[in-house]
Design goal:
The chain has helices spanning 30-41, 58-61, 78-87, 102-107, 109-129, 164-183, 206-215, 235-247, 249-252, 267-278, 302-308, 316-331, and strands at 7-8, 16-17, 21-25, 45-50, 69-72, 92-95, 135-139, 152-153, 187-192, 194-196, 220-222, 229-234, 256-259, 264-266, 284-286, 298-299. The protein is an alpha/beta fold. The protein has a domain at 18-195 and 234-260 and 296-302: Rossmann fold (3-Layer(aba) Sandwich). Strands 5-4-3-6-7-9-13 form a seven-stranded parallel sheet, with helices on both faces. The chain has a three-stranded mixed sheet with strand order 10-12-14. The radius of gyration is 19 Å and the shape is globular.
Length: 333
Amino acid sequence: MGHETAAVEGVGMTRIQQGTNVLVTGGTGFVGGHVVEELLRRKLRVFSTYIIEEPHSYFSRSHFEKSVTLIKQDIRDIDGIRHIVERFGIEYILHLAAQPIVEVAIADPLQTLDTNILGTANILEVARLSKGVRGVIVASSDKAYGKHGKKKYVETDELRGDHPYEASKSAADLLCTMYARTYGLPVVTTRFGNIYGEGDLNMSRIFPGILEALIRKKTLPLRSDGTYVRDYLYVKDVAKGYVQLMEHIDEVRGQAFNFGSKETLSVFELIKKVERGLKKKVKFTLLKRAQNEIPYQSLDYSKVKRAIGWEPKYNVSKTIRDMYRWYKDILTT
């Protein structure tokens, strides 16, 4: 990918030249693979950190390694991150790398806190000291809010995660605010609901679990009682959100944004949507063993819609058949 002079443009957008150097931490992961795809589509020069190679990932199966510079690097090593940013002249950092699994966080809290908090601090500190970084976007989560006993969460709600994963996201989110207010760092924080789509290889999550049960003709074990309600947001809407924020960084720096969905569903409602879309019956059993679960959580995304014009374009009915084919391919080969 060469340095070209054409630009990605739009009303109120930051001018981003084709060939601009963008670092995606965790770019080979589930969301990262789709973000990388969106960046490549816009002819930006993409660099990605990774820890392990996963042959079934969306990144690997899409052969993005042919167009992306891959660097094996742990985000907990600040010197390694600094070297990458300086060596490759990084201008934007999309920080997605994290320990994302709630059960792992409960079993090994220190590793999760180390990765999600110290790792984020390293990214922000390197960006602060770099003369070339023009913007940083950090992936937080709706889990950073903790439990408020309300249905719609807004960006001004207090961050009060009280279990390892949730607390790590609350803390990382607050670090972004600190760097923005103390040092004027052009950083933006994203808080997403439940993300689904091709490439999620954590089969304990609801969407991969449903599709695996259908493809392998198994009974799906549900940790909850099936009534817990969440936003369900398709991964390509997420990827577009990241890139739109990058393009609007001068207008939105120092802020946090919710990215929600028009589909706020209980587990039972989600299963019914999948069944209608695929014309297949999902067999499941209720374990009722969910730990630290919030009965109802949904994000108000009106702020990001006003700020950059983002809103979700996809839904379960529109995406489920493609998802089924993708999972069938990886689960039967």
